[in-house]
Design the sequence.
């Protein structure tokens, strides 16, 4: 059975990992994108993996509504990257400390009015 991709997604991102939860009325599917280990911390303390945001964008290619959550600046960088490259995407951003996967999905269901 093929993996179902929903049009709503929540991304929790920091400098080393992006957890992506596709949320729909029929369920949730999840995937993870990791920064390359050799590129995880640059001189400024941020991620210097030039492909990290591109790979996340590729995973989100069929998404139309997105909630980006994260504790540091990566959530803002992802928002700017996607707004420049995906004019069709509706994006919400929230600064947050790490939450459990269940809490992230629940927040996404609430924001997208899928509960």
Sequence:
């Amino acid at each position: 059975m093929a993996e179902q991709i929903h049009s709503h997604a929540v991304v929790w991102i920091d400098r080393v990992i992006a957890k992506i939860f596709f949320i729909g009325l029929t369920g949730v599917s999840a995937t993870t994108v990791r920064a390359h280990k050799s590129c995880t911390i640059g001189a400024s303390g941020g991620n210097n993996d030039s492909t990290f945001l591109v790979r996340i964008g590729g995973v989100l290619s069929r998404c139309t509504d997105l909630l980006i959550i994260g504790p540091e600046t990566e959530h803002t960088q992802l928002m700017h990257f996607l707004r420049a490259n995906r004019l069709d995407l509706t994006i919400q951003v929230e600064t947050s400390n790490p939450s459990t996967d269940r809490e992230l999905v629940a927040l996404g269901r609430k924001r997208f009015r899928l509960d």
